[in-house]
Design brief:
Helix content is about 30%, strand content about 25%. By secondary structure, it is an alpha+beta fold. It folds into three domains: about 5-125, no CATH class; about 130-195; about 200-275, PH-domain like (Roll). It has a seven-stranded antiparallel sheet with strand order 2-1-3-4-5-6-7, covered by helices on one side. A four-stranded antiparallel sheet has the order 8-9-10-11, with no helix packed on it. Strand 9 and strand 10 (about 210) form a beta hairpin.
C-alpha cells in the first residue's frame, strides 16, 4: 500500500516548522486532514504559504499543501520538483481531499490550478527545517576584520598626529596600539573558544528546545520553565548578550549562533524579557 509523508503545521509555527511527520496511507492522510482543527486555527490567521495546514510529499519531491483560505474555503498549493507553484481554492474540505486522492494516484489535474508566475522562495514553506544553529565563525571573522581596519585607521591618525605636533613619541603610540590589539585579540579568542562547539535547536512553535556546548552534551529545556530572558541592546538596535534564566536558577547564554532578535522571537509573547540598558525600548507586551 502506497504511503506518502505527511506533516502538520499550526498557526504558531514558523516557516519550515512541522510536526507529526511520518509516512501515511491515503485513508490515514484523509483522516489526518479531517481531524485537523481547521475552525479553531482559522481565527486571526493570515492567508499565506506558512500557516495551519497539512503538507504531503511524494517520492519525486512534489508537494501538496492544504491550508486555509477566505470565507471558510481551503487553499490547496501544489509545488512540483522544479519549484513551480500552483494554487487552487477549494470550497470545502471534501473537494480538497479529492485533490489529495489525485496526488496519491499521481494524476493531479493542474489545469484546475492557477500557476504562480514568480517562483522564488517557495520551497522553504514546504520543506522541513531542523532549526539547528551552530557557531557562526564568519560573523566573528567579519567583526575581527572590521575592528582591525578601525584600529589601523586609529593608529594612523595617532601616529601622524604625534609626529606633526612633535609632542609625543611614536614609540608610545605604537606601544598603545600593541596593547589595544592584544586585548582585542584576547577577547575575540575567548569568544571564539567559548562558542566554537555550541549547539542550539529551537523553533517558534514547539515548547521544547535543546542547547549544549557540543552535540554530545545537549540538554532539553522547556520554554515554560523560563523565569526571564535578559539582553543588551547595542548600536542600531542590535540585540546581544542574551541570558536565558530558568525558574530553578540555572541559566544559559547562547553566543553567536543566530541573530539576537530572531532568537527572542522564538519565545512566547508571555515570556518576561528585560534589558540591561534603561534606554532600550524593545520588549514583549
Amino acid at each position: 500500500m502506497l504511503q506518502l509523508i505527511s506533516k502538520l503545521q499550526h498557526n504558531t509555527y514558523e516557516k519550515g516548522e512541522f510536526s507529526d511527520e511520518c509516512p501515511r496511507a491515503l485513508n490515514e492522510t484523509i483522516q489526518l486532514i479531517k481531524d485537523f482543527r481547521w475552525d479553531a486555527e482559522r481565527t486571526l490567521t493570515d492567508i499565506q504559504l506558512t500557516g495551519p495546514s497539512v503538507t504531503i510529499q511524494d517520492d519525486a519531491l512534489n508537494y501538496l499543501k492544504l491550508g486555509l483560505y477566505f470565507n471558510g474555503k481551503f487553499c490547496v498549493y501544489y509545488l512540483d520538483s522544479g519549484n513551480h507553484l500552483y494554487e487552487y481554492h477549494a470550497p470545502n474540505i471534501d473537494e480538497a481531499c479529492d485533490l489529495v486522492i489525485d496526488f496519491f494516484n499521481q494524476t493531479p489535474d493542474l489545469n484546475r490550478f492557477e500557476k504562480h508566475f514568480f517562483n522564488i522562495g517557495n520551497k522553504p514553506h514546504f520543506v522541513t527545517n531542523d532549526f539547528v544553529y551552530r557557531f557562526n565563525s564568519f560573523k566573528i571573522f567579519a567583526v575581527a576584520l572590521g575592528a582591525s581596519v578601525y584600529l589601523l585607521f586609529l593608529f594612523s591618525v595617532l601616529f601622524f598626529t604625534a609626529i606633526g605636533k612633535e609632542k609625543a613619541m611614536p614609540i608610545a603610540v605604537i606601544l598603545t596600539l600593541v596593547i589595544a590589539v592584544g586585548i582585542f585579540i584576547g577577547y575575540i579568542s575567548a569568544t571564539t573558544i567559548k562558542g566554537l562547539h555550541q549547539y542550539l535547536q529551537i523553533s517558534k512553535g514547539k515548547t521544547e528546545f535543546s542547547y549544549g556546548y557540543d552535540e554530545q552534551h545537549v540538554v532539553i529545556y522547556d520554554k515554560a520553565d523560563i523565569k526571564e530572558i535578559s539582553y543588551t541592546l547595542g548600536g542600531k538596535g542590535s540585540v546581544g548578550n542574551i541570558k536565558i534564566i530558568f525558574k530553578n536558577g540555572e541559566f544559559i547564554q547562547p553566543t553567536n549562533l543566530l541573530d539576537g532578535m530572531t532568537l527572542l522571537e522564538k519565545f512566547p509573547k508571555t515570556t518576561k524579557i528585560v534589558t540591561n540598558q534603561r534606554f532600550a525600548s524593545f520588549g514583549r507586551r
